[in-house]
Amino acid sequence: MRKTILLVVATLLGFSNLMISQDTPTNDFSKWQFRLRGIVVAPDESADIEAIGGDVSISTAAVPEFDITYFFDENWSAELILATTKHDVEAVGTDAGDIDLGSVWLLPPTLTGQYHFTGGNFVPYLGAGVNLTLFYGVDEGPVADDVEYDTAVGFALQGGFDFMLNDKWFLNFDVKKLFLNTTATVDATTALGATVDADVDIDPWIFGFGVGLKL
């Protein structure tokens, strides 16, 4: 009986040691990766415009994008994306008709936490995080005297995959959804005799494709 108990204990200890060794993360992975992508930023816009009503139309933009990813282990990482886009803006269907509000540049650094599904050359991942959007380079267009946009903080959801070409180089496809809201203040004193505030949901989809390097 004692031999049986000792055998069971030894077996359980051996099994436990095996599980621990399998679950213990190793450092045999690339901690840094860098991507250069071309992205399409497609706003899913809507607005609540005071006084004159109507909605907003914001143009789609295509630009290059650079991002940096740091891996805490083989599965978990944090990614920072860097890009800037220029968009044409128009108030549509207002009591004063369609109003050209010129253009604005957006700088939206976005930080996401990601989980990567490992196990081959095809590496899908999911992510979520936060976004800070700065508005600059505003051209108010031919009607407004001035247009101002409030800095915005929003949330981001992400999905995509890397396809490994070798140990270091890979292709990437990525899609993000940003939940982004700002207040736009349009000074149209000359044309309309008023300053108009608008609560604007930009909420863009961001589609990216590019190449990456693991280090």
Automatic annotation (TrEMBL):
It holds the Pfam family OmpW. Residues 1-21 form the signal peptide. GO terms for biological process: transmembrane transport. GO terms for cellular component: outer membrane. Keywords: Signal. This is OmpW family protein. The lineage of its organism: Bacteria, Pseudomonadati, Bacteroidota, Flavobacteriia, Flavobacteriales.
